[in-house]
Amino acid sequence: MSKHISTEPVLERLFFNNRVPVVILFFIASVVLSFQLMGLRVDASFEKMIPLKHQYIMNWLERRDDLGSANSLRIAVAPQDGDIFDAEYMDKLQKLTDEVFYLPGVDRAAMKSLWTPNVRWLEVTEEGFEGGPVIPQTYNGDATSLKELRINILRSGTVGSLVSNDFKSSIVELPLFESNPETGEKLNYAELSQALEEIRDRYAEQGINLHIIGFAKVVGDLFEGVQSIGIFFLVALAITFVLLFAYSRCLKSTIVPIICSLIAVVWQLGLLSALGFGLDLYSVLVPFLVFAIGVSHGVQIINNIAIESAKGAEALKAARLTFRALYIPGMLALISDAIGFLTLLVIEIDVIQSLAIAASIGVAVIILTNLILLPVLMSWVGVSKGVRERGDISKQKSPVWSLISRFAHPYVAPVSIVIALCGFGYGLMMKDQVKIGDLDPGAPELRADSRYNQDNAYITANYSTSADTFITMVETGPEMCASFETMQALDNYMWHMKQVPGVQDAVSMVTVAKQVIKGLNEGNPQWQTLSRNQYVLNNAINNGTASQLYNKDCSLAPVLLFLEDHKAETLERVVDATEAFALANNTDDIKFLMATGNAGVEAATNEVIGSAQNLMLVWVYSVVSILVLITFRSVRAVVCIIVPLALTSLLCQALMVHMGIGVKVATLPVIALGVGIGVDYGIYIYSRLESFLKQGMNLRQAYYETLRTTGKAVVFTGVTLAIGVCTWIFSPIKFQADMGMLLTFMFLWNMFGAIWLLPALARFFVRPEKVKKDEDMPAVTL
């Protein structure tokens, strides 16, 4: 025995000769990290969702003090009966304005409502300019006051923007700070959304409907949907337990892998908290994957222990032999997973990088909990007699595995290769049709029938100005924004952009200046133009109405483009048109810079994703290929394992086209996750196949034995992973449902590709034998 032990790997001797200390260390670590878990926070911020290093965002951040927040809420206040010219409605609007004024994080100076003093009217009379707040100082709710209010609203130019086209609702606009000015802490969108919902419910009881849109509300609604994730986790846990028990028919072999996988989840969350990381709306899904990956590797270990036990090995020896056989392919698979996830760090958006870190930490701890702790625990508990009997593959004759092993036959393999080539061709053709960004109006992260998207549809239908704004920053020297040259450039840009499909309107200080100049000339429309007289231009913008359309030293003038939607095609047209105009018109004195507004931020995000997606794929496939090459020391092995993954990635992109899913923050990580996890199948199958080939078997015999020993575990793993994420499809959060659909497809197709395409590739690259009379006939035939 001692002679045998001396030939055992060092890690095997370390762990199995010290089982009690190993388990104690795992127990202590689990207790410590469980306490750390209590401090874990789930957060989200506007800046985590955007690419802070993109030039558009940097342009905005440098000028944020002048431009204000790109993150705002719009609340449409609609009476259930009648219109806004009602004393009771105006009273409730005033109370609502006062109430939301004190919500945390509101930029109160920039807030707008019919009741705020910065919403004014202006007209030219025989005696000069007259103006004032839309709500007259003499307002008392009587018929005369309401008539004057109607006149003021019509004179203010707010119809279609702050007041609906049918006068049946008005907007309260709330720009938000990233942090709460009173506490200095990051704005809590979940609490803000909850406060808004309480206000909504209270006013609904008073006959007033509120329709609320904006980034903060989207995040708040997503947080509400995230609360259901715990239920999905419990459902996935129950399904996994049932499937694993049906697979092993042994309670011990079911409970121990699940416990080890749950420990991995606890460790992952505890380590994230200890390292100062939190969970956001995307990385909160990672514990699902960590649990599923842990179970999948646990199945391989249980399967191998059953086989060794069937050969007569007692529990300890079976566990040691299993560790010896699987720790290298298991380690390779998990390291490939972790490094594959880390390739997401090339995408400079915080939420994606947080997801990459969370997933990598989770996979790293699986190396400890499922490759070390699991076999150590099984060395004590062992497997049941029924498991040992089913693990005796020498007595098993499977016509199914015999049929599947024909994929390695010299006559069948070429057919598989041709089918795969057709799949590659189709995938490459569809790849060009994959869109970057959102393909649906409203908030695509939520379902079309969600309350938010219904609110967005209401505002879009009843207001002329869209909620999707693309703001171009026009920068000049100090006190030069009102010069004729700058105003003319602004005017030309606005006209240029109004011709772009998808642009509803354009507004800048020029819009106000032209109106004032027309008013100064008896309202004659022929005078609605820019004057070359600088005194006239200065007078046109110094009346208070245009003050929010340029900064304090008149060196920055934003142009607001109101878009029909924020779909990828619309944003591409706007960006291309702006870039073309800037290239032709930028000078040392006047510069057109992109971009802010929710559509500008979306455009920047789309550009980052568009440029990063191919780089991410190159990195993930390069890293996985290098690790496979180092482990198997064979380029042929790399081809056999990687090609099925590449086919699945292309077919996944084709599926996205058919499902109308764009490549965006929520879906971009899916392919990296699918490749990182999917490589496990190929590694386990190829490792077994190679060991049988080294024993002198021909390819089909070796593949048949591979299927008998590990095929069932691989199929079970693929199905378990797919079912685990398939439950996401029923989530109220659409991006989680989309991720669930795509990951289900990738897990199943990666499993199928490893079983179907890998042996066909091996026929050509590993063992290109000629056909003989009894070539490749396994022991069991049909």
From TrEMBL:
Cellular component, GO, one term: plasma membrane
Coiled-coil regions listed in the entry: none
InterPro entries per UniProt: MMPL_dom, Mycobact_MmpL, SSD
Keyword flag Membrane: yes
Main location: membrane
Transmembrane segments: 20-40, 229-247, 254-275, 281-305, 326-349, 355-383, 403-429, 615-632, 639-661, 667-689, 710-730, 742-766
Compartments where found: Cell membrane
Record's keyword annotation contains Membrane: yes
Bilayer topology: Multi-pass membrane protein
Domain SSD: residue ranges: 255-380
Keywords: Cell membrane, Membrane, Transmembrane, Transmembrane helix
PANTHER family (alphabetical): MEMBRANE PROTEIN MJ1562-RELATED, SSD DOMAIN-CONTAINING PROTEIN
Name this polypeptide is given: Membrane protein YdfJ
Gene name of this polypeptide: ydfJ
